Each structure stands twice: as C-alpha cells, then as structure tokens.
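Thread: quick sanity check before group meeting

JM: Hey all, I'm pulling together slides for Thursday and realized we never actually wrote out the predicted structure for the chain we discussed last week. Dropping the sequence here so it's in one place. If anyone has concerns about the input, flag it before I start.
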Amino acid sequence: MKKLEIIFGSLLVISFILRLMLIPGGTFLSVVILSLLSLLYLIFSFIIFNPVKSDNLLKQESYSNIGRFKIINSVVFGLGLSILCIGILYKLQGWPGPNNTITIGLSLIMISSLFAFVKHLKSKDSYFSGLLIRVFIFGLLGVVFMSVSSMDIFRFEYRSHPEYIQAFENYLSDPNNETLREKMEYEYKRTYMSEEEIEFYLEFEKDENQFYNP
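JM (edit): ok, ran it. Output follows.
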C-alpha cells in the first residue's frame, strides 16, 4: 500500500505539471489521482501507517503488535488526509466549499499528529516519524491551497492566455448570457488549438449553423 501511495503521489506531481503546462489530460489526471488518494487514505490508512504487509491483511496476528491507539489514530489521520485531498480537488476545480473541507482535513491531521507526538515522547516509537513526513507535505499543500482562491489558481494556470481569463470572468458575471458563453468556449479552444485548427473549427461551426438554420 505504501508503494501505491508513492505511485499516486508521483502521478499527482506529474498531473500538476501537466496542468501548469496546459497539456491535455492534466486536469483529468489530477481529478482521478486526488480521488484515488482520498479513497486510499480513507480505506487503508491503518495499513499504510503501520507495519502490516498486504499479503497478511486478513490474518489477526498481523495486528497483534500494533495496538489499539495506533489503529484508531491511523484511521483518524487517514480520514484527515482523505478529506484534505477532496478539499484540494475542489479548490483546483473551482467547486464550492473547498476551504471548509481543507480546514476539516487539516484539523483532523493536526489532532491525530498531536496525540501521536505525545505518545512518541513517552515511547520513542518510530510510528510518529512516518506521520511527520506526511504532515509536512500535506500540511504545506493544505496551507497553500487555503491561502489562494480558485480564481487565483485559474489565472495562474492560464496566465499565458489573458483573453480566455477575461472571457471566463465576463461569463461568470453573467452566466445566462449566451454570447459570453460562446466567447468563453472559443477562447478556451484557443488555449490548446493551433491557428489552423481554430480556422477549421470556425468553418465547421459556420457550416453547421447554416445546415440547421438555412
């Protein structure tokens, strides 16, 4: 499971790079990976953060040396990471409620980390060290995404296409305006189409309109 976590984390970094470079598939990949990471932490957190081998998941003796505290704390920590991943996904996609979701996720992470730290001071268990790395990475991500708005991310992502940014903002100000919507869609296509493809698209749209509206 830890290997799967590393793979998903690596793919998430790649998806962020693809999004910043406006390479098709980057947005889709980030949505899929953040969703999978959320599910991974939600379901398998007690396995990821504890020394349990995947081939011994169904054997009771695999959990005999872990202890109730580690299992419960790992579940809470995993729940926090899961919620945080969803919050980051919502912020990236401009969906409603990301800040509240990120806050809940960070709160659960901090609470479980605090308990783990207190336990670590008493027993010097390496369990806390494994959590600390994730606290740093996801805590930093959470703070960064909390401090910026979805619109800030959008503007940065499409910083090389100011016409699309302006068209998108105009559409948001009047979402029922069909002309603004068409303008926004046109400018969006210009972010990934060449001039030749744009000309072909416009010709196709013109022919289609003439066909349906002779």
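AS: nice. The mean pLDDT is 85. Residues 68-93 form the longest helix (26 residues).
JM: adding both to the slides.
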